[in-house]
Amino acid sequence: MTNAKEFALLTEKIKQKGKAKAQRFRRYEKSETQCIQNKMFKDNIKEFYRHLGTKNIEAKESPSMAAGEPYWKSVWGEKAKHNETAERIGEEKSETTDPLCA
Q: What are the CA-CA distances from residue 40 to residues 55, 56, 74 (Å)?
């Protein structure tokens, strides 16, 4: 009877040690991956995002200048019209204590 109990205890102890080692190994792998990704992000952001598995978008042919010019003129060339009576603007002005911003 004691041999069976000792065997069961020993088996359980070995299982727990194995689980602890596996968990420790998973933590190490996660930490190692994080360090590699941090270094890659610092050194080459483009490669970092490729490595994450984002879909690679390739332009087969770049747009001509004639096609792009009207778009960029509409973005940068026209003055923007803002709603000066917007509620959010009033809230921001009332929250601001800086006399230069008021």
A: 18, 17, 37
Contact 56, 50 (CB under 8 A): yes
Question: Is the dihedral angle over the CA atoms 20, 24, 29, 30 positive or is it negative?
Answer: positive
What is the pTM assigned to this prediction?
0.43
Helix (H) or strand (E) holding 37: helix 2-43
Q: The tokens 């069976």 sit on which residue? A: 4
Residues in the chain: 102
State the pLDDT at residue 32.
94
- Residue 84: which of 73, 74, 92, 75 has the closest Cα? 92
Structure confidence by residue, pLDDT tens digits, 49-90: 888 876 666 777 877 888 888 888 888 887 877 787 888 877
Residue 51: how many other CB atoms lie within 10 Å: 13
